[in-house]
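= Paired protein data =
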Amino acid sequence: MVHQARKRFGQHFLVDDAIVEQIIRAIHPQPDDLMIEIGPGLSALTAPLLESLRQLTVIEIDRDLAARLRSEWPAERLTVIEADALKVDYSALGRSLRIVGNLPYNISSPLLFHLAEHADAVRDQHFMLQREVIDRMVAAPGSSDYGRLSVMLQVRYDMAKLFDVPPESFDPPPRVMSSVVRMTPLRAGRPRPVSDAAFAALVTRAFAQRRKMLRRVLSDWAGDIDWAALGVAPTDRAEAVSPGQFMAMSDQLVAAGRLPK
C-alpha cells in the first residue's frame, strides 16, 4: 500500500539514493553502535543503517508507518517506539547514544532543545533539517544568522554543517533547501553557566529585540553588568555577543540577585 505523506506530521520522505549514501557515510555506523533513528518514515535510512548495525531503535509517531516497520524487520533487529519524539526520555534509552534522523521541520527547534536536555547520554547526532535552521545553529557572532538558537546550542554542542540537500531529493518535495548537520555534545569540564535557567532567560530576552543595542534591551539589569570586563561595547547588539560572554553575563546577574538560580 502506498503511504500518503501526512502534513500534520511534517512528512517529506527522502527518495534520493545518492543522498542516502552520503548521509550513511557521514554517520559511519558500526555494528555495536547504540543508534536511535527519529522519524524513520519509509525506511530510506533505516534499511542501510541495518546493513551495518546489529540492532536499531526507531521513534515513529505515525501508527501506520510504525506497523509497517514492525512487519518488515524482526523485533530483535528493529525496536519500534511508537511515540512523539518531543516526549521521549532519551536518557532512558542508554548511554553513548548515536541519534540520527530526517527531522520534521515543523518541530525542529523544540526537538533540538528537548534533545539538549539529554545530551549527557549522547555520543553524536546527525540530522537533516531545513538549511535555514542549520545556518542559524552554526552561525558565528556578528552574522545575520546568529541568534538565540545559535547561542543555546553552541554552549552544549560542537556543530558542523556537512552538506546541502535539494527539494527534489524528497517526496513530496519541501519548499525549502535542506542540509545535514553533525552535533557532538561538549563533555564534562566544558564552560557552563551557574544557572541554566538564568542563562536561557537572559539569551531569550537579549534576542527579543535584536536590532536594538543590548544595553537598552537589558536596561533593567544594565547596572549590574560589568560591560567592560565582558568586552561588550556600548553600541553592541545581541548578535555581537559570544556564547561565553552571555554565560559570564548571566553569572553576574545571578550573583547580583537579579536572576534566580
